[in-house]
Amino acid sequence: MPQTITARRLITATDTIDYPVLTLDAEGILTSIEPGQAHSTSDALLTSTFFDIHTHGGAGHDVMEGTSEALDTVSRFVASHGVGHFLPTTVTASIDKTLTSLDGIANAIDRAATGDWSPHQALPVGIHLEGPFISHAKRGVHPPDNILPPDVALFDRFQQAARGHIRLITIAPEVPGALDLIHHCVQNDVRVSLGHTNATCEEAHAGIAAGARSATHTFNAMRPLDHREPGVLGIVLDEQDLFAELICDGVHVAPELVRLWLKAKGPRRGILVTDAMSAAGMPEGIYTLGTFEVKVANGRAFLADDLTRGKTTLAGSVLTLDRAVENLQRFTGASLEVAANLASRNPASLMGLSETIGDAAIGRPANLNIYNAEGKLQSTLLHGRPVA
Ligand SMILES: [Zn+2]
Question: 187 CA distance to ligand 1 centroid (A)?
Fold first, then answer.
């Protein structure tokens, strides 16, 4: 018995359709999308579910734990915040720990791909390797002892442990060896994001020339702007084709600069991410990010070690992607159409996954976020079924 969904408006990757009538088959695949009658009673707004390409965890678990319990919990948690697909993201740790974590995350990705996955869980579709090939000067909370010079052979060991599932890597392009690694990743269909970097303008351009396509949490852990030496940040904002992540929690980046970022990157190149850690969705307290302790208070996550020395170093976020989409609209005045696509179409486009992820279209699973007329996320459907 096919199911139908009606709404006031459907926001797709390319269009908005008024009063749509969506038909689903028994597997929850969209079989038709037709414009309906203007007197339809539903005032719901539909968007595609979101795709978070930078998240470390949530609901008390970190993906670096690598266990099925951790990955199941995180994927259920993100789905409850409008996410249909995500890239579990590592943090810098010892080589052994990283290899073990990658193997565990790869198990979850393989399980999800073969259908051994709850319909209430977002699908992990690849791994974002954040570190160890980053800059000491802009390491943020990544532990200094485990930061390593870019190394093609070591990357290959990581990729082997991940059984080919590393799809995105954050690299500081100015570190010796980085350009070779960027080339190698690009040749092997791994997207490269410039991040945790102190690159000058020239070094950033070299990274892009080598094949980098995106920037990791723009503004954070990046050489700041200088009008004579624009640095990597100036290049990220200026380079038209470069994608650029943003943590839109109002803490990591001031609203004024969220507006500047959107003006610079436009509706097609900005990507909303959470950079969430295990405390996302949890009460205040002490949590872990990778292998280190983080204290969460007032909606902020700080490196616990630094706090004891009077330093406040932000350690990931407790942001959820539905909140990021809300904040973006609040900070910039952008419409839900624009904001939702920053969290769905654009990350899929960066990752070369536009054919399967980030749009509500015929032939695809009905992975939909349902907003009320006030623009509040009411529920999320995966394969047409509400996420519990
Ligand atoms: Zn991160």
Answer: 24
Alpha helices in the chain (DSSP H): 68-79, 95-113, 152-161, 178-187, 201-210, 231-238, 255-269, 304-308, 321-332, 336-342, 345-350
Residues in contact with 228: Cβ distance below 8 Å, sequence separation at least 6, in sequence order: none
pLDDT (mean) for 248-277: 97
Match 């269009």 to its residue by tokens.
15
Give the rounded percent of residues in the chain with a pLDDT score beyond 70. Answer: 99
Average pLDDT over all residues of the chain: 95
How many A from CA of 55 to the centre of ligand 1?
7
Distance, in Å, from the CA atom of 375 to the CA atom of 45, rounded to the nearest integer, reads 8
Give the Cβ contact number of residue 287 at 10 Å: 23
pLDDT at 2 over 70: no
The pLDDT value recorded for residue 371 is 97
Give a yes or no: residue 293 inside a domain: no
Clarify whether 275 is annotated catalytic: yes
CB 216 within 8 A of CB 170: yes
State how many domains the chain has: 2
Q: How far is the CA of 45 from the centre of ligand 1 (A)?
A: 31
Tens of pLDDT, residues 280-323: 999 999 988 877 888 998 888 888 888 888 888 888 889 999 99
Task: Report the CATH number at residue 34.
Answer: 2.30.40.10
Q: How much is the pLDDT for 314?
A: 86
How far away, in angstroms, is 237 Cα from ligand 1 center?
Answer: 20
Exactly one of 62, 275, 322, 359 is catalytic; which is it?
A: 275
CA of 88 to the centre of ligand 1 (A): 10
Residue 308 lies in a domain: no
